[in-house]
Structure formats: C-alpha cells, structure tokens
Amino acid sequence: MATATFQQPFSVNAHLNDHSRLLTPKVEFSTVNFPANGEFSRVNFCPSFASTSSTSKEYAGHVRSLPNVDGSIKEKVPTPMLDMIENPMHLKNLTPKELKQLADDIRSELSFIMSETQKSFKASLSVVELTVAIHHVFHAPVDKILWDIEDQTYPHKLLTGRRPLVHKLREGNGLGSSTCRFESDFDPFGAGHGCCSISSGLGMAVARDLKGKRDRIVAVISNETTMAGQVYEAMSNAGYLDSNMVVILNDSHHSLHPKLEQTPKTSVNALSSILSKLQSSKIFRRFREIAKVLTKRIGGGMHEWAAKVDEYARGMMGPPGSTLFEELGLYYIGPVDGHKIEDLLCVLHEVASLDSMGPVLVHVITKEEPGVEYNTIKTSNEDHTGSCNSELLPCNPRPRTYSDRFVEALITESEKDEEIVVVHAGMGMEPPFQLLKNKLQDKFFDVGMAEQHAVTFSAGLSCGGLKPFCIIPSAFLQRAYDQVVHDVDRQKIPVRFAITSAGLVGSDGPTHSGAFDITFMSCLPNMIVMAPSDDTELARMVATAACIDDRPVCFRYPRGAMAKPNPDSCIIDPIEIGKGKILTEGKDIALLGYGSMVQNCLRAHSLLSKLGVDVTVADARFCKPLDINLVRMLCKNHTFLITVEEGSIGGFGAHVAQFISLDGQLDAGIKWRPITLPDNYIEGALPKDQLALAGLSGNHIAATALSLLGRTRDALLIMC
C-alpha cells in the first residue's frame, strides 16, 4: 500500500447532516487530527465495497484544504453570523459585539475565496468593519451607498444577498465581480475604475433636493483614487452646491512613492478618537453654526477672524492635509479607526442624524491586511481524492506572461539607450513592472490613477529629449484620450504607448476589458498602431518603438500567459513600419489576423486542414499604416478574406474594408467578412469562455470559413 508523508499539522473536519447516504445519520461532526510529522497510508470517508467480508468500512472522499498563515493546512472556517445575514435589514438589531463577529466571518469568507481563486481581496479586507458599520447605520437601498472601485465592494456584496454570486468567482465565471445598477437595487451606480462615486453621488443628492426627498447619499473613496483629478473637481462642486452627502475616505496608508512611505503615517489614538466623535456630534456642529451667526452679526471682520481661528485649530488637531477638504467646502471629521466597530458606529450615527449641514468627509484609517499577512502562494482549485503527498501542496509557479517578455525587451533597449524612461499609470502594478521599476529606479515614474497626467507628462519628457514609454492598461487609457489627441498626436510628439490588458480580461469583465483601443487609436492621423502575435513579435515591436522618433506609436498586448514560445525568440530586430507577413500559404481562403488573434487563426488553420481546406494565414502586425501590398495579394490570390481582431467594431477590420473598397478589390470579386468583438459588453468569465461567447475561438473562425465556402453542415459540426 502506498504511503504519503507530510510535514505540517492539519486536521480534516467532516460536517454531516441527517440525510447523509455515506455515514450513519447519528454522526453530526467529526474531526481527525494529525501530528506535525507523520505518515499515513490512506484517509477514506466513503464506503469501500472492495471486500464484503470486512467488518469495518473505509471511507473516501474529497479533501479541500487551505494554507494557513504559518504554512499549516486548515479547512474553511465556519461563519455562523454571516450565514444568518440575507440583506442589510438583518444587521439593524445586532450589538457591536455581534457586528464584530460578523466582520470576522466576512474576513474569513473572503480569505477562503481568495485562497481558491488566486484573486486578491486586499482592498475589500480593509473595509470589512467599515462596510458592516455603514449598513448598520444607513438604510440601503433607500439610502444610496456608492463605491469608487469594485475591489472594495465584496463585503458589500456579501451583505446584500449576493453571497452565492461572489462564490461563483471560485468557478471562474466572474458573476460576482461586477458592481452595476442593473445587478442589484443596492448598487445605485456602477463602480468603474475609480473617482466616480462623489460626482455621481452629488448628482443624486441634487436630484433628491429638487424632488423634495430625504434619502442620504454615502460615497466611499480610497486614497488610491484620490490620485485622479475628478475627485477634487467633484469635491469642489459639492462644496459649492452645499448639498447634504457623506464622503468616506478609506485611507489604507497606500502610497506610490517610497519617500512618502517613509514619512509618519496618520495615527489613530484615544485623543484623535475623542476629537472625531466631538467633531461629528450635534452639539459641536450646532455650536459652530451659532458661532458663525453671532460673528456675522458682530461684524467688523469678526466672522473672517473667527473662521481663520477655526481653520487653524482644526488644522492643528487634524492630520496633515485635512484642511484641504475644508478649503474645498467639505466638513472634515477624523481620523477614525476603520477597524473599531464602536468608533465607526458612533461617528456614522452622528453624521447620519445631521440635516442641512452640507457635504461631510469622514476620514477612516484602515489597513489592507489587518491582523494577518497573506502570502503569495498560489493554490490549486482541484480536489484530490485518496492519498495526499507534500508535493500536492500549493506551490504552482506564476506562468510567464506577455508583460514579462515586454519588460525583458524594454530592459534590453534601456541598456542600449540611456534616454529611455518609463511612465506607468493605472490601478495597481503587475509584478513584472515592479521588477522594471527596481531596474530603472529614477527613470521609472508611477503616477497611479492619473492617466491624463501620465500622457501629458510623457509628452513633456519627450520634448525634453528623452524617449518615454507610457504603460497604461487599455481600459484606463480611455480616460486620457483627450490628452492623447491634443498633447501627443496633434503635435506629433514621439510618445511610445504600451497598451496592456488589451482585449478580454477574464473574470474582471467589462470594467477592465480593453475592447476599444484599436478603434480610438487607429483613427488618429499621426499614430502608428501595431500589435504582436506572440512574444517574439512583442520584443521586436519594443525595439521598433524605441527607434521611432518623429511621431507617436502604440502597441497592444493581452493579459495573461503567453502563447507557445516562438522558436525565433532570440530575434529582436526592429520591424519595417507597415509590413505584415504570411505564416502559411493556401488557395481556398485567407485569414488575416491582428495581434493575439493570429494564434486563433492558426488554430482554425489546423482544424480546416483536417477537412481538406487550404488556408492562408497572415499576420497583419500593423493596423496603421496598413500593409496594403499584403492585403492586395491576399485579395488577388483568394476568393474569400476574413479579418480577425480582438477589438470592437470600427477597428482593424474597418481599415481593411476602407482600403479594399477604395482600391476596387470588392468590385473585383473578393468576399470579405470581419470577425470582431460583438457590439455589447462581455461579462466576466474564463478567458476561453469569453472568446467563445465573442465568436473569436479557433472553432468559430473555422466555422465562419466553412460557411463562406458553402459547407454549412461542416460548420455546424465543428461547433459541436
């Protein structure tokens, strides 16, 4: 009999009910504990029918374990308090102690899902107590609760009846990742890329006032989104309009700059807690309003003098920068400990009871990982039956991605050219870019969620004689399009845009999907637009972009693991501008792929070859300038032409259609079909499922080709 050894203590818990068909109904709970170092041959929980003469039964089943903080293994922790919550109304009668238990249950639940899905919930873990307090004090969905970023909304989802949907993340279909007004009455506005909650909340507050309603508006922002200018535009307008709303700043001590990380953090102690409660109290607010009225009546500059004293005193008591919010017109309260339920309830109850007091900002201090440090070990989603071995413990290495290859190529170019600098913008940073930051040091600039600034800053660096590579995810580049047009393209400033997370992005869904960059970048008169089909092409396009110094250029690449490594990966010579290439030659039909879709065209070629269809596959490389000689040759030598791209309508296929129509190729008899992303938003799912839903898989491409050839039956069979 085979044996298995293990080095960590762990236990197996079996929860059984009266309807169990495997064990006696009398057994309700069973625990098996194992020593720290031991050896066992088998752990079985299902009846073994191998021998009917055996007097004892063996049981075999599924064992799913999680890595603990110290490396040990444990099962999912029970969450009895969370199990009783179906909607926020169930929180109203809970005591602070029970609310704290509920917060612990939510944290356990998110930690369990995080360990199984490899999806980070750090932002959500920082707002667990805050979310519980908000739903205890305010009355959603009558009161509107808005979030700036989706990453903070998972405790909110668990408390608003969407616990099963959040668990769908474990299956990879991403149903729990979307926060939009169509999904739930508890989401009055979609949580996009950040900085939208105050603006949308202010609009709802003004609409409420005009309609004579009395519901309350709560907007939760993070210090990560305060990098974006729209936050301050909204605050300034909120201060001017003076509509009642509550803005909660979740300050998780996150900073993009190491020098700022070394500065003293905003502390929360007994004194600051007392002052926050005092600032939010009715008595203090009424006293302050009475003082304003009296000083205005006294006249002689008394009101202005008193306002300066008030501002100076509150600035002395508050943390650095607190007076900024006062200058914008928001009444500042804080700092408040975001992990103390009692303090949060006290302040939020006072804030919720205030009427006709204008916009209020509550400064909440949180930690992204309160009380626990999560390691970066990736876990397996598979269930293992039978014997266990230490080799089955989660230790899967991170797969090699396109970003890894991009960083390698860019480091190579930077070693040859000292003028290369990098500007990074967007939410968070991929691990390869952290390595690039460490390598380039002072030549790497991370500006966070300030994409507009990143583009114009890059233009300024270029005007100063440097060669900037501006790295921005496709979905985030949308916010900086005005700067791309006027500050870069119109002036023909050579900025090199590396557009990451292009196309479909799996479980992150339409929020982070990069569907539109081909269309909105290729319509600019001076922009060179290209996309690599594999890792080698990506490295060559980095070298190509480094050589271009008379106009802007952009290239896109997808999120996730690379396709099969190219055997010619050592070739990193620049590519001739506007020059595509033919990969396989045939005579029946031509597939012209753009970017990552070239790989799916090759898969379609493999399927069609088995059916006797002779296919040409070409890699366009460039959307602009288009390789018109390649397109002419494909039209001349084939009756059918199919263009394939992982982008919206109006992109690469539209440029091909424009050329072949003006060039007379359509009149000459070529039959052209475009395959693009559909004209709708594709929700989060596994990448392969998203491609199938979009009609961009190798099977879909092959089926389109067979339909053009009149082989409808084969087209249907290949989709089965």
TrEMBL record:
<keyword id="KW-0808">Transferase</keyword>
<keyword id="KW-0460">Magnesium</keyword>
<keyword id="KW-0784">Thiamine biosynthesis</keyword>
<dbReference type="InterPro" id="IPR020826">
    <property type="entry name" value="Transketolase_BS"/>
</dbReference>
<dbReference type="InterPro" id="IPR029061">
    <property type="entry name" value="THDP-binding"/>
</dbReference>
<feature type="domain" description="Transketolase-like pyrimidine-binding">
    <location>
        <begin position="400"/>
        <end position="565"/>
    </location>
</feature>
<dbReference type="InterPro" id="IPR009014">
    <property type="entry name" value="Transketo_C/PFOR_II"/>
</dbReference>
<dbReference type="InterPro" id="IPR033248">
    <property type="entry name" value="Transketolase_C"/>
</dbReference>
<comment type="similarity">
    <text>Belongs to the transketolase family. DXPS subfamily.</text>
</comment>
<dbReference type="GO" id="GO:0008661">
    <property type="term" value="F:1-deoxy-D-xylulose-5-phosphate synthase activity"/>
</dbReference>
<dbReference type="GO" id="GO:0009228">
    <property type="term" value="P:thiamine biosynthetic process"/>
</dbReference>
<dbReference type="Pfam" id="PF02780">
    <property type="entry name" value="Transketolase_C"/>
</dbReference>
<protein>
    <recommendedName>
        <fullName>1-deoxy-D-xylulose-5-phosphate synthase</fullName>
        <ecNumber>2.2.1.7</ecNumber>
    </recommendedName>
</protein>
<dbReference type="GO" id="GO:0019288">
    <property type="term" value="P:isopentenyl diphosphate biosynthetic process, methylerythritol 4-phosphate pathway"/>
</dbReference>
<dbReference type="GO" id="GO:0046872">
    <property type="term" value="F:metal ion binding"/>
</dbReference>
<dbReference type="InterPro" id="IPR005477">
    <property type="entry name" value="Dxylulose-5-P_synthase"/>
</dbReference>
<dbReference type="InterPro" id="IPR005475">
    <property type="entry name" value="Transketolase-like_Pyr-bd"/>
</dbReference>
<dbReference type="Pfam" id="PF02779">
    <property type="entry name" value="Transket_pyr"/>
</dbReference>
<comment type="subunit">
    <text>Homodimer.</text>
</comment>
<dbReference type="Pfam" id="PF13292">
    <property type="entry name" value="DXP_synthase_N"/>
</dbReference>
<keyword id="KW-0786">Thiamine pyrophosphate</keyword>
<comment type="pathway">
    <text>Metabolic intermediate biosynthesis; 1-deoxy-D-xylulose 5-phosphate biosynthesis; 1-deoxy-D-xylulose 5-phosphate from D-glyceraldehyde 3-phosphate and pyruvate: step 1/1.</text>
</comment>
<keyword id="KW-0414">Isoprene biosynthesis</keyword>
<keyword id="KW-0479">Metal-binding</keyword>
